[in-house]
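[INFO] parsing input record for Ribose import ATP-binding protein RbsA
[DEBUG] input buffer:
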Amino acid sequence: MKRSPVDAPALELRGVTKAFGQVVALRDGELALRSGSIHALVGENGAGKSTVVKIIAGLYRRDAGEIRLAGEPVDFTSTAEAKSAGIAVIYQEPTLFPDLSVTENIFMGRQPRGRFGRIDRAAMRAEVESLFAQLGVTMDPDRTADGLSIADQQMIEIAKAVSLEAQVLIMDEPTAALSGVEVQRLFQVARSLRDEGRALLFISHRFDEVFDLCDTITVMRDGSYVSTTATADTDPDRVVAEMVGREITELFPKLDAEIGEPLLEVAGLTSPGVFSDIGFTVRAGEIVGLAGLVGAGRSEVARAIFGVDGYRSGSVRVAGKAVPKGRPTAAMRAGIALVPEDRRKQGLVLEESVARNTASAILGAIAKLGLVTTRTEQQAARPWSEQLEVKANAMSTLAGTLSGGNQQKVVLGKWLATNPRVLIIDEPTRGIDVGTKSEVHRLLSRLAQQGMAVLMISSELPEVLGMADRVVVMREGRITASIDRADATQENVMRAATQGAADETDETEQAA
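[DEBUG] output buffer:
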């Protein structure tokens, strides 16, 4: 049974401000986390959420305001101080030591010592087994961290926090890379920690998760505090309006488009052990959603179509012409563009400017006598930055300093600059705020209306159902269903993703 919150918040921020030079990242920040409660912190990218987390974690020092822990003022000057005070942060992508065991990662820097000062490995292992039993986690304490899923890595970080007796746990976008089953396991652990009397802060762009898990919601906008409301007393529309300062009338603005001739035709695509007999068609003006659980092989198919990865058999055609396999440059010449799942690692050079990133796929076209100047790059990139409304101080701004939503716009601009006929976009709105999601969806719909063929890979079912004209579902490397928009529901898509072929499968389409 959930414990009643104590009178004094477990952690409280009052009027906290943080500036970087002339830029105020957080002004008069307010937050009160209570023991025995899960508190959501929501806002668009750039709203100040990350600054709040880094101040609480001791990475940044506040410029003004007050922080209280269990009613007492605190002033953390380092992450070590915050940890020793009982604060733990679970990030979207944990940073474990891959060559060390699960147990060694949990006890890194604080190994128990036995006789003669030797590390007591038996005591460490017994403690880890007890922690996992407490959390309901099944994992071998002796296996190395290398190769563990993101979900398992997060469980290790949570076990470490519990072993340190952390009373305040911050979960920063913890579900972004998890499957539905992994999300539910994480939520089960989060609820058990809440029921033990700990205070949890949950940061997410996914409203279904926020309203499912959290007791209270704090909204931020433009670096400022907006409101704190009990989850039971609000709804997603109201939260969105507070986040963006305006009504988002359509999160999925699907425009009518004339469906034309096939542009992308994939037939019998097979890569042993990865995917088998993949076949589907995307027509001009059509958005096809490629759905399935994490690990179903969706991204691998996209990479094979674009030539990043090879495949043993099958064919890819654009407008009836064969595209050579294993050659991204040939795919680009054929009119295919791929916006990858991991924009930071695969889509951008974070240390380079907005202009250089945007122009990077068309350098051959804009070069003069084999040279490309900064001015030429900026001239080529500016129209796309303006069209996509990239929020950057200048074209020379480094891509790594932009918010996630603006980074995604830069990657989109980079590939749209190639004037593609087929756009493959993998997780188009992962990790970006609701306002920018609506902008990206509107852009995809407009591109389809202009005659582009769009293959959209997404783990968010509402996005697939809201944007796709047709949903192709994969399970364990095979297509199990192709469902028209009018017939697609969460139930039949999930059935095809988890159990195999659904009744709505269009066998003719699969063989196309």
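[INFO] The chain has 19 helices and 20 strands.
[INFO] shutting down worker
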